[in-house]
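The pair is quoted verbatim below.
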Amino acid sequence: MFTGIIEAVGTIKAININAQGARLVIAINNLDMNDVKLGDSIATNGICLTVVDYDQHSYSADVSNETLKRTGFANYGVGMAVNLEKAMLASTRFGGHMVSGHVDGVAEILSITNNGNSIEYWLSMPSDIAHYIAEKGSVTIDGTSLTVNALSDGKFRLTIVPHTVKETIFAHYQVGTKVNLEVDLIARYLERLLTKEVVADEPKSNVTESLLQKAGFIK
């Protein structure tokens, strides 16, 4: 799990694509690697990746074909800046929101406008996940925890303060940039519970209302 508070901006050092997916090598810049070990997770532009090799200057991670399909990886190249966040600890201050590092879709930046000392970004909403995005709700853009400030006709607006621009890759964004989008984790589970969606081959529960009555849990 992650919080969406970016710890450092890294750089893609190498991309090696193969039949199984790809391997990335990320130059970490100022990310503290003293507490990192093999198998740890580092969110890289919002994608939860497992460290398979590392030193004090970089780490390597494998990317599955599923991840390649669901993220903006097709737009990545050597030298590209990426947001980095190590997996949260139980003692970590929870400054953002619950972020899984599982990207739901790719959004496109539609416009960038200065507003006082902040910058407003309008982004497209993929139609299949648009219903998870709510005004004043949380979303994750390339791993950054942000608040949705407005919704309109298949798009949503973010207002980014100078500190966020400085500490993340927002300064690199242009109109047309594709970004990884993760919706609020709680919204996905609430939908599953409220709609009681049936999954193929899912085992059915033997707990019934009559069984609960017999056991004295309900009257």
